[in-house]
Fold Sodium:proton antiporter.
Amino acid sequence: MSNYLFSEILFSQGLFSDGLLGKNFYIIPITLLLPLTAALVVLQANPYQALVVRGILGAIAALVYALFGAADVALTEALVGTMLSITLYAIAVRSSMNMRLGILDSDSKSASESGSEYSPESPFTAALRAALKAHHMRLELVTYDNAAALQAALIAKEIHTAYDSKRFLKTRIEALYSILKTVDSPATANLTYLDLSRPLAQPLPAQPSDQTDQNLQEERP
């Protein structure tokens, strides 16, 4: 029944005025590209390739709208449905598909001088980049002045992973913890997962000093 209604719509629009093999028969294969391209978007594992296929899907949809005489809808699909959405998707993918690794500034300076752990050519950094690249992610190094600032940044969710001066690697994201476990490096031997959904231990209140106790006693009647 649905095929019959679809054919009636095509004939009413004059698309099949010369029969099934008429001059407008090319619209059918172009229209069939829509579900095929949509399936390719869903099946893509690489997010950047999915954005490219999404652009192709939008172009085909705009072409189909134009062929059916809806030029205004085709223009809206091309400008808003395709260009704007792909721009927003690209910004979201680029900002989310990276791991921010917090390190100490002193360690970073010593590494740049000696060419050790934090330099781009070091085995540790190269192993991290290789593990993340397999998941289409990038590595971003963020430096902090001291260990307290590094720990605070991890708790405040400014970074995803922290590597302190004691060579402990901490991450607050469970998916990154699974990825980092596969890295063949001595640094990942001290890898821990920090679950921020659980309440952290609160520090004990400071004990009042002797001067404070004396002032309280003087204020009493």
Summary: The first helix runs from residue 2 to 12. Residues 1-6, 201-216 have pLDDT under 50 and may be disordered. Residues 2-95 form one domain. The CA atoms of residues 124 and 194 lie 21 Å apart.
